[in-house]
Amino acid sequence: MADILIADDDPILVEILKFRLEGAGYSVVAASDGAQALETAKEIRPDLIVLDSMMPIMSGPAVLTALKADPDLKDIPVVMLTARNGEADIVAGLKSGAAEYLTKPFIPQELLVRISGLVEATQ
Amino acid sequence: MSFYQDIVVTTALCAGAITIVFLALVLRRYLSERNRARRDERDAAITRSYLQRVAGHKVSEADTWPRRARLKAISRILPLLRGGERTRLLQIAELDGVLRETLRISHSLYRSSRINAIQSMQQFGSEACIGRLREMMASDRSPRVRLEAAFALGANGALPPPRETLRLLNALCRQPTRLDIALLRSAAPLYPEQMLLLLEDELQDAWRVQIIDALGWSDNMGAIDTLDKASNDPDPEIRCAVMRASARLGHPAARRWIMIGLTDPVPAVRLQAIGASVRLGLRKAVPAIAQLRHDPELWVRLRAEQALEQLEPVDDVTPQAAPVA
Amino acid sequence: MSWAGTIYALSTGIVWIAFTCFVVVALRNLVALAQLLIAAWVFLTRVKPGDGARDLWHRYADLALPISVIAPAFNEQLSIVQSVKALLALEYPEHEIIVVNDGSKDDTLGELLRSFDMYEAQATQIAALQHTKILGTYRSRRYPNLLVVDKENGRKADAANAGIGFARTPLVCIIDADSIIEPDGLLRAAEPFMYDDRLIAVGGAIRIANGCTIKDGSLQKIGIAKEMVPRFQIVEYLRAFLMNRVANAHTNTLTLISGAFGLFRRSTLVEMGGYRHDTVGEDLELVVRMHRFMRDNRREYRIAFVPDIVCWTEAPAALQGLDNQRARWQQGALETLQHHRGMIGNPRYGRIGLLALPQIVLEDILGPPAELLGYLVLPAAALLGLLDPMMAVAFFFVSVVFGCVLSVGTLVLEEQQLKRTPSARDLLRIGMAAVVENFGYRQINLWYRLNGMRRFFRKDSTWAAVPRAGFTSA
Questions:
Q1: Mind listing the pLDDT tens digit of every residue in chain B (325 residues)?
Q2: Chain A: residue nearest B72 by CA?
Q3: Which of B22, C115, C123, C259 could bond C81 through an S-S bridge, CB–CB 3.0 to 4.6 Å?
Q4: What is the CATH number of the domain that holds A68?
Q5: What total of structural domains would you count in chain B?
Q6: At what angle do helices A60-69 and A34-44 cross, to 10 degrees?
Q7: PTM 4-aspartylphosphate: at which residues (chain A) (predicted)?
Q8: CB pairs below 8 Å between A and C: how many?
């Protein structure tokens, strides 16, 4: 069973994703800002991280850069959630090493498909 | 007390009052920030509870959650659900009285609250909501609210027949706006026959133009004869609308008058005809459009050049749907 | 004249000056108070933009008028690529970006050509409004909606005019290359065009980007600058946009759309010949001339304002830099008033002639010297026993304390309606700035404006010789 870390400052969205992912058999930990996400990642070493690009304290791309700089964490696949039309975000995200990105609003099923693909690939 | 003293005292009182209001707002903001963690937790709990209920779990929940918080959670979950789950969530919302709360707000004295309620009802789209929206569209005292209700109905495919819509919005006594056009377009697929009948009414030409335009969105091939007839109309605006509608409808018979439109004496019609040819991928029109590169009108020349790029097969460029400007 | 007679004449003179200063400053603040009340009313009854209309924009994208965003760029080598990427990513059904390289001395053009894979194209200019030579036009292989125009160096007005000439869309949005546009700024600003076909121009609220976190040409996090000067300007911008513009737009007397972001009907701009090249206040001049043009031609028109934030802009971080900016604004206002002096008080121009322009006269010509003079003359007159000392106190209250009321009042509007201040603590900080601003900063600003007036009178004869180009009459 894979551990997934979700970092997003929107509690409702986090809860929806958590519900779906737990329903699909993953165990989920949530963080509400970038700094907390980074700390949690170091602590539990999740199998996958879902990062929102716009977060208080540390933005998604900043967390991503920090993750990639850490030799222990750099192999964890990251799915980046970006706002509508955030093309600049996507470009920056892929350049700094996000495995996938999803543009909000999305259907949770979409995320589930991407996640299961990534988790299978790494295991 | 002298006049100047009055000024000093009045100004000082104003300054005092506004400072107090401001500090109160700062305090409100401070409290809401301090309670943020608790509020987030509550929102998450509400969300979880609804998701579990949608999934069919029995949930014993505290009924202390305010309706507004429930409403907020539901309107966030709703767009993320499809099919049966969506219907179930709406039923649960109805049971919890969240819907009732929205309906209550829709009677508010404040126009902006009523419009907020309209937006929630648009999202829910349940029968009770549609009913209330129709009521608001018919009888709200603010024209803006009636218009918003009309949008919400349009988005749910539940507009009243076009003649009724136009009457309720007092539309026919003024010039059509872009919003009226959007409403007509969303009414067209629901009431294709009535749209055709409407054209037989006494109408300003500006409205006739927009109704013809909307026929393009009706998915009703029965409109093609009307378009055929209107393609010879003396009013160039109408001929323009025919070109737009024909391009949208995509009936093969329209090719004939689109080709004629390319040589229309009025530049605007030629422009629309070029657009229609691109939209339909009308290769047959290429020679005629190539001619238009030497048109006396600059806009036609520019559009023709662009159209040729889009129509002629270029290796890696896929022809885009042209904007019907 | 006897000694006593001289003294008497002098003291009467002083008393008159004191009274005039008092009346001008009081009048100016009464106008502002009226604006604050109108703005409060507008905000109270306003319908906040919702998803309903947005849904419609997406379904019938062709009803949204296509927009060309025109970004004049001069020596922007370091930031231009990020800025353009952010512009390309704006949320709008159909928009084109026209970057005008205004003869940059650095490698702005090269950066663009390399980063966006551009090739030389033969774009047709529909109307040549610029005075300088176009050197070339470039299109991108990757982004079909990007056009770069390379031209000889001119002023911003000239670069914007060149861009307007290449636009084919019904609307053009003129920005500064370093403006950071809100992701849905175009959508918000274009919304009024959906409701009213008579609209020819729309302005939107602009905020100060100092202290905000900006990455890749887009705003990541709203913040408040540490220095006081930008904080004072936050208050000033709030006053200008939330109070002044909202009220003016409501009463149909809007005369200024900022050069940092303005949405215009292209055909009107082209007919008018675009911006004037011979003024430093081209944005004010354009809108005033627009009123004149439409009224001279007896056309029905509207100019609107959206109080939602459309764009963020970097403000001078210190007094040095601010002095120049303010002097330039002042000079621009005076130049515009001089060009269009025939409109002032002229009933032919309706409320623009009778209300809007006299308001600028009061605010920009009479106001600054009257207030500065008042600070000196009133206390002096009171000390000499020529005036009721209470009048000097009242002057202080009318100018400074009332200034605080207006600033804090606008801040109340902001917090009640837009809530774009990051936290309670920052709100309090701006609140303090709103008060402190009136003791020192406000007076320094008045001084800068007097400098602008000086510049205006000095340059008076130099620009008079410039031909009145760009001024087409229909």
A1: 578 888 889 889 999 999 999 999 999 999 988 888 888 888 888 888 888 887 777 776 666 777 778 888 887 787 777 777 777 888 887 777 778 888 888 888 888 888 888 888 888 877 888 889 888 888 888 888 888 888 888 888 888 888 888 888 877 777 888 888 888 888 888 888 888 888 887 778 888 888 888 888 888 777 888 888 888 888 888 888 888 888 888 778 888 888 888 888 888 888 888 888 888 888 888 888 888 888 888 888 888 888 888 777 554 444 444 444 3
A2: A12
A3: C115
A4: 3.40.50.2300
A5: 2
A6: 30
A7: 52
A8: 31
C29 touches chain A (CB under 8 A): no
Chain A CB contacts of C90 under 8 Å are 85
Q: What is the ipTM of this complex?
A: 0.83
pTM of the model: 0.83
Per CB-CB distance under 8 Å, the chain A contacts of C221 are 56, 59
CATH of the domain at B235: 1.25.10.10
Is it true that the peptide bond before A56 is cis, omega within 30 degrees of 0?
A: no
Q: Is B21 on the interface with C (CB under 8 A)?
A: yes
Q: Which positions ≥6 away from A3 have C-beta within 8 Å?
A: A26, A27, A28, A29, A44, A45, A46, A47, A48
In a domain, residue B303? The reply is: yes
Residue of A10, A9, A15, A76 whose CA lies nearest to A42 = A76
Q: C379 near C388, Cβ under 8 Å?
A: no
User: Does some domain include residue B3?
Assistant: no
Query: How many domains in chain A?
Result: 1
Taking CB atoms and an 8 Å cutoff, what residues of chain B touch C41?
Answer: none
Domain housing A35: 3-122
Q: Are B80 and A16 an interchain contact pair (Cβ–Cβ within 8 Å)? A: yes
C-alpha distances (whole Å) from C141 to each of B245, B316, C89, C144, C169 are 32, 11, 17, 7, 21
CB pairs under 8 A between A and B: 36
Q: Is residue C308 within 8 Å of C204, Cβ to Cβ?
A: yes
Chain B touching partners, 3 or more CB pairs below 8 A:
A, C
Ramachandran category for residue C385: left, alpha or beta (phi over 0 → left; psi -120 to 50 → alpha): left
Q: Which residues of A touch C213 (CB under 8 A)?
A: 59
- Indicate whether B155 belongs to any domain: no
Does C217 contact chain A (CB < 8 Å)?
Answer: yes
Judged by DSSP in three states, C130 sits in coil
Nearest to C258 by CA among C236, C283, C277: C283
Reduce the DSSP state of residue C232 to 3 states and report it. helix
Residue type, C265: R
DSSP C178-190: T-EE-TTHHHHHH
Within-domain flag for B254? yes
Under an 8 A CB cutoff, do A14 and B77 touch?
Answer: no
- Counting runs of H as helices and runs of E as strands, what totals does chain A give? 5, 5
DSSP alpha helices (H): ranges in C367-420?
A: 367-383, 389-396, 402-417
Q: Which domain holds residue B90?
A: 43-56+65-98
State the Cα angle at B68 between B63 and B70, rounded to 5°: 55
What is the DSSP-derived secondary structure letter of residue B284?
Answer: G
